[in-house]
DNA sequence: CACACGTGGGT
DNA sequence: TACCCAAGTGT
């Protein structure tokens, strides 16, 4: 790791901000410095690309224009607005923090990064972003871009996958943040990280700060940042039950914690559970086993048939799901009182938040 | 601290 | 396909 003189720091700030002034992207949340706008955009942008976020941000602001609107938002409406964005706890945490702002803070924003971290869903990165962009505090906002950019500029060898590495970067970046334009500085670093200084195929030759990029100058840019790899997703197999009445389909709400919390899907039966039953009844078919499980658990008699040849597949960060769809028809009169789900009509589904894996399943059913 | 937590895009 | 990556946080 190298360090910069005061003169070099000043040069870097001038160069970076001049480039930013000339080339910054026109994004919907850059039209003002309203902390609410900054906040919502920063949460949406966590682990999510700009192009994906733009339409969600526009719709969200139209539906929940102020902190008070967000604090009063019913969770299903909030999740529906978040549908397809992923990491749904972000949406629930937004509401929690909005309520904190309205009640604990009486609608007055805390203005420092240290204080902002008391709000649910706001960690060190987002706190730095809001404090610098909306309130002008001279603090870094260290996201994946900042880690990558400064690891190359300064040849920082610490593993950015390790939590403790943040301290090293904070200490290295804090003295470099522009004292007059901290918000623009942080956003410029992010723009740099998503243009010239990308993770793969960077274009440092044409970067506005190439003369400051020590890793590039030394011909070792491809060695930065240092980042250990994560575990691969593990396979989880399910049967998905498409139980249809003439006007509706049976859906269940997922538990309030864990994967896809509170979202709705077709009922899923883990293949593991089916195989346990088959171990004691080796001549039974998979379909019959699922029918018996549903009968035993929910007092519901079904006549299932396999709907799709290939399972519906979806890869999450840590799990790969494969769902074989099984279809059954029921009539409206059937007793669902033991079944932990609801018959939802097309109209109901328009206001029911579902994850992408459910959308994929529904699409597969439609094609039949 | 290590891991869970979604999704879409790129190679 | 499989893997990596993208404006991270909570537990």
TrEMBL record:
Per the database record, which ranges form the HhH-GPD domain? Answer: 44-195
> Into which EC class is this enzyme placed?
hydrolase
What are the GO MF terms of this UniProt record?
4 iron, 4 sulfur cluster binding; 8-oxo-7,8-dihydroguanine DNA N-glycosylase activity; adenine/guanine mispair binding; metal ion binding; oxidized purine DNA binding; purine-specific mismatch base pair DNA N-glycosylase activity
Residues in a coiled coil are none
Cofactor dependence: [4Fe-4S] cluster
Q: Which reaction does it catalyse?
A: Hydrolyzes free adenine bases from 7,8-dihydro-8-oxoguanine:adenine mismatched double-stranded DNA, leaving an apurinic site
User: What CDD domains does the record tag this protein with?
Assistant: ENDO3c, NUDIX_DNA_Glycosylase_C-MutY
**This enzyme's EC code(s):** 3.2.2.31
Question: Does the record's keyword annotation contain Transferase?
Answer: no
Q: Which UniProt keywords apply?
A: 4Fe-4S, DNA damage, DNA repair, Glycosidase, Hydrolase, Iron, Iron-sulfur, Metal-binding
Report the cofactor remark.
Binds 1 [4Fe-4S] cluster.
InterPro entries linked to this entry: A/G_AdeGlyc_MutY, DNA_glycosylase, HhH-GPD_domain, HhH_base_excis_C, HhH_motif, MIG/MutY, MutY_C, NUDIX_hydrolase-like_dom_sf
- Kindly name one Pfam family recorded for this protein: HhH-GPD
Please name the Gene3D superfamilies in this protein's record. Answer: Helix-hairpin-Helix base-excision DNA repair enzymes (C-terminal), Hypothetical protein, domain 2, Nucleoside Triphosphate Pyrophosphohydrolase
Q: Which family does the similarity line name?
A: Belongs to the Nth/MutY family.
Protein's job = Adenine glycosylase active on G-A mispairs. MutY also corrects error-prone DNA synthesis past GO lesions which are due to the oxidatively damaged form of guanine: 7,8-dihydro-8-oxoguanine (8-oxo-dGTP).
Name of this protein: Adenine DNA glycosylase
Q: What is the lineage of its organism?
A: Bacteria, Bacillati, Bacillota, Bacilli, Lactobacillales
């Amino acid at each position: 790791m190298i360090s910069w003189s005061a003169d070099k720091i000043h040069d870097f700030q001038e160069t970076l901000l001049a480039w930013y002034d000339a080339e910054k992207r026109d994004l919907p949340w850059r039209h003002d410095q309203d902390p609410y706008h900054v906040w919502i955009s920063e949460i949406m942008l966590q682990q999510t690309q700009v192009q994906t976020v733009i339409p969600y941000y526009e719709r969200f602001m139209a539906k929940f224009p102020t902190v008070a609107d967000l604090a009063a938002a019913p969770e299903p409406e909030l999740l529906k607005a978040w549908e397809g964005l992923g990491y749904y706890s972000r949406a629930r945490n937004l509401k929690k923090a909005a309520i904190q702002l309205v009640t604990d803070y009486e609608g007055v924003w805390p203005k420092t990064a240290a204080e902002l971290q008391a709000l649910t869903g706001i960690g060190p990165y987002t706190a730095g972003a809001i404090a610098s962009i909306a309130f002008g505090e001279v603090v870094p906002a260290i996201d994946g871009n900042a880690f990558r950019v400064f690891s190359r500029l300064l040849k920082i060898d610490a593993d950015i996958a390790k939590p403790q590495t943040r301290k090293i970067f904070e200490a290295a970046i804090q003295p470099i943040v522009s004292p007059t334009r901290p918000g623009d500085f942080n956003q410029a670093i992010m723009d740099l990280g998503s243009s010239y200084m990308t993770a793969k195929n960077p274009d440092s030759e044409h970067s506005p700060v190439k003369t400051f990029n020590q890793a590039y100058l030394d011909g070792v840019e491809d060695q930065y940042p240092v980042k250990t790899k994560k575990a691969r997703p593990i396979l989880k197999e399910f049967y998905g039950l498409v139980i249809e009445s003439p006007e509706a389909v049976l859906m269940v709400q997922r538990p309030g914690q864990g994967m896809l919390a509170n979202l709705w899907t077709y009922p899923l039966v883990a293949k593991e559970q089916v195989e346990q039953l088959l171990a004691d009844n080796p001549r039974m078919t998979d379909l019959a086993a699922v029918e018996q499980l549903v009968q035993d658990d929910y007092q519901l008699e079904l006549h299932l048939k396999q709907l799709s040849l290939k399972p519906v597949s979806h890869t999450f960060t840590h799990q790969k799901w494969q769902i074989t769809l099984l279809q059954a028809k029921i009539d409206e009169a059937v007793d669902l009182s033991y079944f932990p789900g609801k018959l939802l009509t097309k109209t109901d589904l328009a206001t029911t938040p579902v994850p992408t894996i459910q959308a994929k399943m529904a699409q597969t059913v439609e094609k039949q």
